[in-house]
Model the fold of this input.
Amino acid sequence: MNLNYTFNWGMLLVDPARSWILNGIAMTIGLSLLAWVFALAIGVTIGSMRMTRSRWLRFLGGAYVELFRNVPLLVQLFIWFFVFPLLLPRDWMMAWNGLDHVPLLTALIGLSLYMAARVAEQIRSGIAAIPKGQFAAARSTGLGEFQVYRHVIAPYAFRVMIPAIASEFMTTFKNSALALTIGVAEITYAARSIESWSFRGIEAFTVASATYMTTTAFVVLFMGWLERRLRIPGLIARR
Amino acid sequence: MSDPLVSIRNLGLRYGTFRALEDVSADFSRGTCIVICGPSGSGKSSLLRCINRLEEFQDGDVVFDGASLRACRDLPRLRSEIGMVFQHFELYPHLSVLDNVTLAPRIAKGKPRQEAEETARRLLDRVGIGDQAGKFPGELSGGQQQRAAIARALALEPKLMLFDEPTSALDPEMIAEVLRVMRDLARNGMTMLVVTHEMAFAREVADEIVFMDKGRIVERAETARFFSAPTAPRAREFLDRILHRL
Amino acid sequence: MGFDWAVIHDNLPFLMRGLWNSVQLAAITVVLSFPLGCIVALGRISRRRWLRYPATMLVHALRSNPLILIVFWFFFLVPILTGRPVGDFASVLAAFVVFFSAYFAEIVRSGIQSVRRGQLEAALSTGLTYAQAMRFIVLPQALRSMTPSLATECVIVFQGTTIAYVVGMREFLHTTFLVTERTMRPVELYLFAALVYFVVCLAGSIFARRLEGKAGIPR
Done:
């Protein structure tokens, strides 16, 4: 082992490294927050489809989840980036290519749709974890199907699913790094730019790792707090 | 009581700030059957679990067969001389009943398989489930499972048997079959410490009753005297409640 | 636009060599990172702090970083540490093994913790040592309860192999990319790649779900 590497942390504080890092962090956080919000919205919709009585909706929901879960995210990003525009009608394709920030939009679409499938699965297993007696008890008090979900199942399921929702956010956050492959300058992209510009890989990658780990720590702390606030006495939230 | 098998000396056990056992001292002689009773949370199970050091006590000591547990360097050997029966049986669900009984003799004591199996079959016959040897625990009734667990403990030829509420998880119709096995054991001279709420069993089989409350032994008496005239007010209260329920 | 599916047929040997590399990378990763994960998991549940703290920190650190960044770390660090260039495959493999061992560790840990504490105590009470109780009583039960998660994790590892693309390893996605560069037929090629990944991963997912149905031990 020969370690002839001299550290130079100072270079991270001057441009261009400094602005690359700051923009990268902003991009990572912005992209993953947006994707997470979309993923939750779509995921809850898909998850609910799978709970309905309609066989068709159930099938569609199930097919969505299987399709998006069983193709690697990177392949999905490539398809949205390289294939999807070519399948559009000609004028649409021109319009799409004329947009600003096509890589970012692509990453947002790909990440949201991918994460939505995972959220839908979490919704389903969250609801499946609710004791069957709850449904029967709620119906026996005269609530309708929708009311049962709205007043009994959803509040219960939401509390039980907090850890899962938090961990899905962390997954979104980490997965946003793949956007660098289609040219989105998020934090891992920034780290690599700094590395190839200065050959200072350790410093550069440390910044990226620190970004992910700090964010994780914050989310874990916040979710722990939220979970304690919303805890149902007598129910231990399962991981 | 010249040479007690178990001698508990000023035993103290804490979980965090909660004192589960406080300054407990008692001697138990060979060949006796002692029933330990008391309200829940009184420290009965904790006391039992200290005797084979499943609980790490902080104060005092337990001397088993002349050897200090605190100073014990070879816990597995010590534990193999003390059989324990649990409330929830704790048979190994992935092993057949026969393998449940032979595992420790083979692994811990290095007995050859054939010898271990012969002993196991004899013990399973003795507890009345010789025909269930090849089945998995999940295929047995609760009463059969608990009897298999007793056979598993006996397979080590222990000097002492600890029973931690052995019938509490059983349906009423299965309690009798387990108690019958325990009664036979006591009659054959096994030294037994039994935590139980089965007062009829205690009255019939036990030589002495130990009554615990809030981590202390508050009364210890010969069985007949305990039931006719308990001295401690808490013991009287407890007896009143439990006997009137019967 | 018209499709030209012949491009797949023409380049099939090259593409399949990429797929084979992906499968190899995934298989070796699983074979190496599972035992490593078991060791880390035992550290995670150990009573000894000097084992538990480092194991816990390692798992948290790895799980809060994206795989792609770990791959970059190794790609950059391994040559510095070894003092000479190693192939793409070696550095990617090292990154994968270390990264996924953290995930396997958590699966193994929760498998062990799903076994009731009474089982360990019963084993100890019959005179087994801690190691024997783990080996004969706890781990066999834990293994049964975690096989579905292990199967799912294998699918995730296989999906993860696409990330080796970023350092130029010739796995399936990379060979697909190379063919599109040459033939200018991204639609057919990427859809084909997606289909292949889908079929393999779906088969794995269905297998994992089957296991889930069988995992229960009668109690």
Q: What stands out?
A: Chain B has nine helices and ten strands. The mean pLDDT of chain B is 90. The longest strand of chain B covers residues 18-28. The interface with chain C takes residues 52, 54, 75-84, 86, 88, 90-94, 103-104, 107-109, 136-139, 149, 152-153, 156 of chain B (CB under 8 Å).
